């Protein structure tokens, strides 16, 4: 491209119908990374804090997009004046990032900027330009796509549930929920915008923390039963590779059940959906009121002025926005619930269940289960969908847990399938508990696991037991023994699910013999990995009181875990401990286990009472 000032160039990438353009991007190559700019429209210059336009924006909270119309947060003249437009010089708030080839932000500069040269493209046009060497913006957008892919990989490596499947049209949003993309978003232009904006918002929030500057942070906490994001991402990757749309929907339903809505606040509580220690919304001040408020604070700080909001005013604004968004979610849910009920009643009368799309079938099924009366043919069609692997978790759990006598043969079949696939049992238990609580589940107060090594057997065994508490009730599973913790938890959950459903308990313990008080081979085979070897020594009673502790340091994109393993040699009573570090918990545990195994086996080499298994 001809001579230009890259700090004043930008490409706006939006939907074809967008009229409120509030962000633009630009990028230049470095020898080992990128120089990236994110320009944000200076909406704060056009809306006086505390004025009538600001009051209306505060009341509306955000722009609402409907199928037939758009209800803008700001009046049309303000939108027109504040929007970034090609061919028009615009004042902006600019985030300038210097990023290395691995996606690590080396430097971030924030402050007033200017956009003097700009272009507007749709998502599809940006994707086409990124792949077309003849396009005048090809070099910039190809580099932008590479940057986006680098940042996405860095977020995934940090543990975020970050995922785009443009072919199937599924992606994860900021809260870790699986969402469907519009057809116009199923391209790399959409990915470019998402990753640039996430990077900008994360760096703005980090800058505010470093400056001890209260803004409206975006905080998010996953439900305690949501699972490890890394494991969920692995499931997503596997489903994407298989192209299994039904499995996508099952994962989507599961994540929706365990998700919690993110909230705004003047203090930092972390963003678990993105796996970031701090986050905010600042890149859409024309469309979101929290972004407008935060922009005012950032501009004042950049100009050396005090914040235009007191801590009390900022907290009140956060509470207002959170309340309004929560009320919107509830009103929307109620609206669709009532509409669905009317449609469901009509479809039950029609009784042609096999012809129903899955979403409508699911409503009919749920309606029938809540009434306790299944119309003829519904149980048979549910069984057909179960056999075809079309029945998703929510509907499976509803029939399994609450199905009337019409569903009894099917419930017994489901019980046998759950015994073959016990990894699904915890999700079924979670559905039951969510139904009782009427909302998200917490491990701190509602789900209590006891998982521990069982040293009294010849081979390593672990026991697991789970208890649910809600209101004044407490329901416990029997203790189940398996060769690893995961299987023990699955079998305990399977037993509890059967109890909750009033069905036969098909869970089982692993076959194992109690340890006899006779001489035995003590040293674990050298081929066994260190962490498993240490667990075997603990199971044999050679190492007592084994405990693992973890600590983590460093920023989210390059975390370093430290694992410390400690116990006591039974033969001598001598304490032993070792520590290891690594980029993941497992790597740190393996490093610690290497040294701990050496200490245990050195103690065994000294002989003594360690040559016999304990009584």
What can you see in these coordinates?
It contains 17 helices and 20 strands. With about 625 residues, the protein is an alpha+beta fold. Among the domains are: about 5-310, no CATH class; about 530-610, Double Stranded RNA Binding Domain, CATH 3.30.160. The strands form seven sheets. Strands 2-3-6-7 form a four-stranded antiparallel beta sheet. Strand 18 and strand 19 (about 560-570) form a beta hairpin. The radius of gyration is 28 Å and the shape is globular. It starts with 8 loop residues before the first strand and ends in a 10-residue tail after the last helix.
Content-based structural category: alpha+beta
Oligomer: single chain
How far the N terminus sits from the C terminus, by CA atoms, comes to: 80 Å
Number of helices: 17
Low-confidence stretches: 608-615
The beta-strand count equals 20
Strand order of the largest sheet: 2-3-6-7
Provide the gyration radius in Å. 28 Å
Proportion in helices: 40-55%
Portion in strands? 15-25%
Overall form: globular
Mean pLDDT: 87
């Amino acid at each position: 491209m001809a001579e230009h000032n890259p700090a004043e160039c930008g490409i706006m990438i939006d939907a074809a119908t967008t009229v409120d353009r509030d962000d633009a991007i630009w990028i230049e190559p470095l020898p080992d990374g990128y120089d990236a700019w994110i320009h944000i429209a200076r909406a704060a210059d056009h809306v006086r804090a505390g004025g009538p336009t600001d009051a209306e924006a505060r009341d509306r909270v955000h722009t609402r997009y409907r199928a037939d119309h758009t209800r803008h947060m700001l009046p049309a003249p303000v939108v027109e004046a504040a929007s970034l437009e090609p061919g028009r010089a615009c004042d902006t708030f600019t985030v300038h990032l210097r990023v290395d080839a691995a996606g690590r932000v080396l430097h971030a500069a924030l402050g007033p900027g200017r956009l003097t040269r700009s272009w507007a493209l749709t998502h599809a046009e940006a994707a086409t330009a990124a792949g077309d060497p003849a396009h005048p913006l090809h070099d910039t957008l190809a580099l932008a796509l590479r940057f986006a892919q680098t940042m996405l990989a860095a977020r995934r490596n940090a543990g975020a549930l970050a995922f785009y499947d443009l072919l199937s049209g599924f992606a994860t949003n900021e809260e870790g929920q699986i969402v469907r993309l519009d057809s116009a978003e199923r391209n790399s232009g959409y990915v470019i915008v998402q990753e640039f904006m996430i990077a900008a918002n994360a760096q703005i929030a980090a800058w505010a923390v470093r400056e001890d500057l209260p803004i409206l942070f975006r905080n998010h906490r996953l439900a305690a039963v949501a699972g490890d994001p890394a494991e969920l991402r692995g499931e997503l990757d596997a489903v994407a590779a298989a192209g299994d749309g039904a499995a996508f929907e099952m994962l989507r339903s599961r994540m929706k059940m365990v998700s919690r809505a993110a909230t705004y606040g003047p203090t930092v509580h972390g963003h678990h959906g993105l796996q970031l220690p701090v986050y905010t919304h600042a890149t859409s001040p024309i469309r979101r009121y929290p972004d407008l408020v935060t922009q005012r604070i950032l501009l004042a700080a950049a100009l050396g002025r005090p914040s235009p909001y007191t801590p009390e005013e900022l907290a009140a604004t956060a509470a207002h926005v959170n309340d309004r968004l929560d009320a919107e979610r509830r009103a929307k849910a109620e609206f669709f619930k009532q509409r669905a009920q009317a449609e469901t009643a009509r479809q039950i009368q029609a009784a042609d269940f096999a012809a129903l799309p899955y979403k409508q079938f699911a409503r009919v099924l749920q309606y029938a289960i809540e009434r306790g009366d299944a119309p003829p043919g519904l149980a048979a069609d549910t069984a057909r969908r179960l056999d075809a692997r079309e029945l998703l978790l929510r509907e499976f759990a509803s029939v399994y847990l609450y199905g009337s006598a019409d569903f009894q043969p099917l419930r017994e079949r489901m019980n046998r399938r759950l015994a073959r696939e016990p990894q699904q049992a915890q999700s079924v238990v979670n559905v039951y508990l969510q139904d009782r609580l009427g909302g998200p589940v917490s491990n701190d107060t509602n789900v209590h696991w006891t998982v521990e090594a069982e040293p009294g057997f010849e081979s390593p065994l672990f026991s697991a037991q789970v208890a649910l508490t809600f209101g004044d009730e407490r329901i416990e599973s029997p203790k189940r023994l398996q060769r690893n913790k995961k299987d023990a938890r699955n079998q305990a959950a399977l037993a509890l699910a059967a109890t909750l459903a009033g069905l036969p308990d098909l869970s089982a313990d692993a076959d194992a013999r109690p340890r006899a008080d006779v001489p035995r081979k003590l040293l674990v085979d050298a081929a066994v990995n260190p962490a498993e070897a240490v667990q075997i020594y603990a199971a044999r009673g050679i190492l007592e009181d084994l405990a693992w502790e973890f600590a983590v340091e460093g920023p989210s994109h390059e975390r370093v875990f430290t694992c410390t393993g400690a116990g006591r040699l039974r033969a001598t009573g001598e304490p032993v401990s070792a520590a290891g570090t690594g980029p993941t918990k497992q790597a740190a545990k393996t490093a610690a286990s290497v040294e701990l195994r050496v200490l245990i086996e050195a103690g065994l080499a000294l002989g003594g009472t360690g040559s016999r298994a304990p009584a």
